[in-house]
Structures are given as structure tokens and as C-alpha cells.
Amino acid sequence: MIRFNNAGVFVPADDQAQEPRTILAPCTLELTESRIAVIGANGSGKSTLLRLLNGLVSPSTGTVTVHGFDTVRQAKAVRQRVGFLFTDPLSQLVMPIVAEDVELSLKASHRNRAARSAAAQQALASLGLGHLARRSIYDLSGGERQLVALCSVLAAGQDILVADEPTTLLDLANNELLQATLGTLEQQVIYATHDLDFAAAADRALLVAGGRVVFDGAAPEAVDTYRRLVRNGSLAS
Fold this sequence. Notes:
This protein is of the alpha/beta class. The protein has helices spanning 46-52, 75-79, 98-105, 113-126, 142-155, 172-183, 196-200, 219-231, and strands at 2-11, 21-31, 35-39, 61-66, 69-70, 82-85, 160-164, 188-192, 204-209, 212-217. The protein has a 6-stranded mixed sheet, sandwiched between helices. A 4-stranded antiparallel sheet has the order 2-1-4-5. The two termini are 32 Å apart.
């Protein structure tokens, strides 16, 4: 269970005459569905909302809790439960060799090097990536890199995956491959996306505009609302 309790993010004003700038207005949410999409224009506050989920951003007001753990006061416990997948896999792939990167995620749970190596091979194989184990991450396609980054995140064993526009840099084939892979996961997946078909496939969607959650409900309806507001000129596209 993820709870936002009047959680918002503000940037302090530069001088006393100005008001703080709202990045995300206070909102109260319970996120329980298996697949939740977050949609909206660039700069709307989508990424801030996602980063509140694992403590990458701290709320200026209110609280965010994951399974009862506060993302500020109990950040370590939260990050043991929430994995984060970034838009650009090269921003989070640390090791030069695929298997080594997955092994790094397993270091805390597998102290024995041989056991860790075997677990990394198994994790890669589970996503159909076993053949890439000894490859350099720089020799992979964009889609392969994103799947390896996903494997490294999942290997850490968290039960919630947060993904910030994970398909943005991918071509059509790799986009569809990543979406299909995410669809098979047991973890709760909360993802921001500009791909409205991808968003519409979720169990629930949040539409964020101007730093506010302006719609929360069925994903197809959220997508229709977003399209309508953009066509009416109410939102930036």
C-alpha cells in the first residue's frame, strides 16, 4: 500500500515578496492497483510524483508512506521495497559488463560470489537476456540496455517498480518488447509515459497538469480526458 497524505512539493521563493513555487500541489492518494500510469505534459509534475515514491524527492508538506514506512524517516526500508527505472538506462547501469551490473544489485542478498554470479545468470535468463551476460552495456541496443537495467532493478527484490518514461528512447519493436516484459511482472508497476496506448492499458491512471493531479480513475477515461484538454487548449501538449 502506497499512501500520499496531503503530500506536496514546493520550491522556496527567492525573496520574501514571492510565493513558493508549486512543483506538485498537496494530494491524498492510495495506490493499490497492480498497474498505475501517470500521464501529462512535460514539466507537469509527473516525475516529481514518481520520485516521491522512493524518497528521491522529499515532500515539502504531508507524508508519503510505502507499506507503512515513511519515505523520509525510513528511506532505507522504503528503497528495499521500491525499485526505480529511469528513462535513460545508461544513467543507472554502473558496471561495464551486463552480468556484473546485475551482480551488483545482488551483493546485499548474496554474499558468496559464486552464488551471486549464478543468481545474476538466473535473473537474466528469466527475462530472456542470458545470452547478453558477458556483453558490454555499450554494445547493446537501446532496448537491450533498458531490459538489462530492468533486470538489475528487479534483482534487488523490491515488490514495487517505479518507471519514469521507460519507453521514451526506444524504437517501436523495443517499446513493445519492454511493455510486454513489464506486463509479465508480479511486482506492482507505477509508470509515467507519453505513450497513451501504454497508459490506457493500466488498471488506473493519474493525469497531472500544472503540478496538480487533475484526474484519477480508469486509465482509458484518463487518456480521453487528457486528449480533450489538450485539444481544447487547456493543457500544453
